[in-house]
Amino acid sequence: MSSGCPPQSPAVAKSEVAIEGECPLLAATFAYWDNILGPRVRHIWTPKGEQLMFLSDGEVTFLANHTLNGEILRSAECGAVDVKFFVLAEKGVIIVSLIFDGELKGDKNTCALSIILPQTELAFYLPLHTICVERLKHVIRKGRIWMQKGYNIISVLSLEIIPIMELLASMKSHHVPEDIDIKDTVLNDDDIGDSCHEDFLHKAVSSHLQTCGCSIVVGSNPEKVNKIVRTLCLFLTPAERKCSRLCKADSSFKYDTGLFVQGLLKDSTGSFVLPFRQVLYSPYPTTHIDVDINTVKQMPPCHEHTYNQRRYMRSELTALWKTDSEDDIPPETVIHTDETFTPDLNIFQDVMHKDTLVKSFIDEVFMLKPGLSLRSTYLAQFLLLLHRKALTLLKYIEDETQKGKKPFRSLRNLKTDLDLTVEGDLHIIMAFAEKLRAGLHSFVFSKPFYTSMQERDVFTTF
Fold first, then answer.
1. Whether the predicted pLDDT of 386 surpasses 60
2. Which residues, other chains included, contact 141 with Cβ-Cβ below 8 Å and sequence gap of 6+?
3. Among 30, 54, 227, 428, which residue has the fewest nearby CB atoms (within 10 Å)?
4. Which long-range contacts (CB under 8 A, 24 or more apart) does 95-99 make?
5. Looking at residues 388-395, what average pLDDT do you find?
6. How far apart are CA 148 and CA 145, in angstroms?
7. d(CA 344, CA 63)
8. 142-153 per-position pLDDT tens digit
9. pLDDT digits over 97-127, tens only?
10. Where are the domains of the chain?
11. Is 59 within 8 Å of 12 (Cβ atoms)?
12. pLDDT higher than threshold 50 for residue 43
């Protein structure tokens, strides 16, 4: 053999994942830059079963290497994760690659965690892009700790790669359509009492809007669950509906972080256990709706939710860093090791804030004759009203704070001037405004940090 030949690259480890249904994901890869061999693929995950498109291991390796080419001179802050989106028309694929620095075998390397999909799935994937990226970013944070300690990063990455494959497969078969016919929802019934109690519908929609349009609907009857899911999705934008999922009739999906509305079926014992960690990592607080017993509960508002989320995330990463063995703390364990922060596992509270906006809408929409387009038109006008109120609130706060240069101190005046004196109305409009301008809740309530109980006291004193 000629001495000038490069050393042979070792075989790439591969995991075939059994996924129920059609998974649009072709493969996921973990690759790194080797100073001798250049880009190298460490592991490949592929869904097992029939696929519309098939890539050989060699093609997957070529595509993974493509994402690392040119990254050798990468200059980024320590711990930064760069997200790159490739559309390779000549190969008919799209690649979402997260580039980060990590230690392998004692050396600092540039790494890439990538997912590969057919180009034909671009429209399907784009609405879900943010959800997938945020979940992969956090598993990379844990993976970098595992790499630093010399543990097997593949086992950690698999904990998120496999659920994302399952998420994409479930969204392919049970996603909520962009256009919802009001005839398939509770709002088309002749009498609200036919399908659900009036107070239950009012409380469900009100809490749904207060938690930025994020809700979990659980129950034993899939038809009833899906009817409520479609009803709540009427109050979302078409893009947000693409990030919502109906329940599956014959078996229940797992809870997935990041979806706006998702229907979940109870098991044979009539219960459904929500994973604390995944619910807490949702980007917005969530409403929990049980259609069997007509209960509605919600998580604390955005600023408190974000505060708890960040503290738990730091606690989780700190606990992983303190491990002495790879088996000490499984990466999916609920962390209790930080003495300064004990997470409250009972994160859902009763809906405390009454409103007039949704109450008036519910009362009036059922006065209109069903079967016509009147109710759909009335709903569109209602959502437009909420959107304009949210824009007005943002403009009001901008003017009062000189676009953030001063702290906001006139909540009482805002409530009076914008006709938001009822707490529930204020929470609904604040939630709409939060989606338009992320961080609004934290800015308004600023320091000191208000818990939900303290916040209710503040609302009553202003």
1. yes
2. 79, 317
3. 54
4. 95/63, 95/66, 95/67, 96/125, 96/129, 96/132, 96/133, 97/67, 98/133, 98/136, 98/137, 98/140, 99/67, 99/68, 99/71, 99/74
5. 94
6. 5
7. 44
8. 888 888 887 888
9. 999 988 776 677 888 999 999 999 999 999 9
10. 13-174, 355-461
11. no
12. yes
CA gap 331, 138 in Å, rounded: 11
Rounded Cα gap, residues 83 and 75, in angstroms: 14
Question: Which of 85, 81, 115 is CA-nearest to residue 101?
Answer: 81
Q: Is the dihedral of CA 303, 417, 352, 360 positive or negative?
A: negative
Cβ–Cβ < 8 Å for 282, 215 = no
Tokens 């519910």 -> residue? 362
Fold of 13-174: Beta-Lactamase (3.30.450)
Q: What is the pLDDT of residues 245-299, one digit of tens each?
A: 999 888 778 999 999 999 999 988 888 888 888 999 999 999 999 999 999 999 9
The residues pairing with 98 across neighbouring beta strands, listed in sequence order, are 83, 113
Is the pTM here over 0.85, yes or no?
yes
- For the chain, state the CA radius of gyration: 24
Query: Which tokens in the block code for residue 43?
Result: 């592991």
Neighbours of 241 (CB within 10 A): 23
